[in-house]
Write a structure and sequence with these properties.
The chain is an alpha/beta fold and about 300 residues long. It has helices at about 15-45, 45-60, 65-75, 100-110, 140-150, 170-175, 185-195, 210-220, 225-245, 255-270, 275-285, and strands spanning about 1-5, 10, 90-95, 115, 120, 135-140, 155-160, 160-165, 180-185, 200-205, 250-255, 300. The chain is built from eleven helices and twelve strands. Strands 4-9-3-10-11-12 form a six-stranded mixed sheet, sandwiched between helices. Helix 8 (about 210-220) runs antiparallel to helix 9. The chain is globular. Bound molecules: adenosine-5'-triphosphate. Keywords: ATP-binding, Coiled coil, Kinase, Nucleotide-binding, Transferase.
């Protein structure tokens, strides 16, 4: 029998029980798909289990009356175990190929005793000349996933198909040595660091133009064409984020290298008394720290 309802033709089933069985099966199929999807996601993010376990441990230890307020505070600023309070790290970010590594090398040459590098973990293959434990801790995907699951990373991300991450231990090692810990991380990592209590000074290194960035990436001759294209396509969004007001304390345009390094040094002397003292001692001819007050000019758009 056919019934016309509000202009549409509805066919009434002779066997309503069959229809509801089919509906139930469809519902079950959907549930199974959803469950598989959730399981896949959870497997990709073992850190979720440790985050939630940490939270539950804290709640049970403190037994707060207002659990929601406690949760907001707990998740808004994740504490970093082992870091030294009062010695803020230096975070340097920017698109791949902009010159972060080059600039960091130069500021380390000027302040070898005051700056320390947080050695990141990565699953990418070493480039020629890169030394494990010095440039990166080169890790396997499984090893990295396990450490993430154990909550050992301040931030981690999959960038250009490889895992990268900063372990709390790497930062703690540097700050316990009394040095300013320098972090070279990608934008996804920056967003994660902002959710922690690490509280670094944020520097974004920007290229003078997109064409220059491309030329530097190609000129470095360390990536395949496919890899270069991946990095360039990520760069547009990264540069947009870097330009957002308040996203970084300083935007440093890496046009002329010397000027950019001088501008960054001038900024670092303002932020860190130990660098100011080293620079003053160097000016008196007593040691390293070659930045001069005049050096803070051009390259950086601070
Ligand atoms: N101011 C500059 N002028 C010209 N070339 C530069 C400048 N700064 C860096 N370079 C060159 O650009 C290339 C990329 O620099 P670098 O490897 O330091 O980039 P990066 O931001 O650390 O990249 P990644 O994030 O992929 O490691 C290098 O060949 C470097 O010598």
């Amino acid at each position: 029998m056919a019934i016309r309802v509000a202009g549409a033709l509805r066919v009434e089933s002779k066997e309503p029980a069959d229809a509801s069985m089919q509906e139930l099966e469809r519902l079950n199929d959907r549930r199974a798909l959803l469950k598989a999807d959730h399981t896949r996601y959870l497997k990709q993010h073992p850190e979720l289990t440790s985050i939630l376990n940490d939270f539950l441990t804290e709640v049970l230890a403190r037994k707060p009356d207002d659990v929601q307020a406690f949760a907001r505070a707990h998740f808004s600023l994740r504490p970093i175990p082992g870091t030294v309070k009062g010695l803020r790290p230096l975070l340097i970010a920017g698109p791949s190929g902009v010159g972060k590594g080059t600039i960091i090398k130069r500021i380390f040459e000027r302040f070898p005793d005051q700056l320390g590098f947080s050695v990141s973990h990565t699953t990418r293959k070493p480039r020629p000349g890169e030394v494990g434990g010095v440039h990166y801790h080169f890790s396997t995907v499984d090893g990295m996933k396990a450490a993430i699951g154990e909550g050992k990373f301040i931030e981690h991300a999959v960038v250009h198909g490889n895992y990268y991450g900063t372990s709390a231990e790497a930062v703690a090692q540097v700050s316990h040595a009394g040095k300013v810990c320098c972090l070279d991380i990608d934008i996804a990592g920056v967003k994660l660091v902002k959710q922690t209590a690490l509280d670094p000074h944020y520097v974004f290194v920007a290229p003078p133009s997109f064409a220059t960035l491309e030329a530097r990436l190609r000129g470095r001759q360390t990536e395949s064409e496919a890899d270069i294209l991946k990095r360039l396509s990520a760069a547009a969004a990264e540069m947009e984020y870097g330009a957002q007001p308040g996203a970084f304390d300083v935007v440093l345009v890496n046009d002329d290298l010397e000027r950019a390094v001088d501008a960054l040094c001038a900024q670092l002397r303002q932020w860190y008394p130990s660098l100011r003292e080293a620079a003053a001692a160097a000016a008196r001819g007593e040691g390293e720290g070659e930045c001069t007050e005049e050096g803070g000019g051009g390259g950086g758009d601070t």
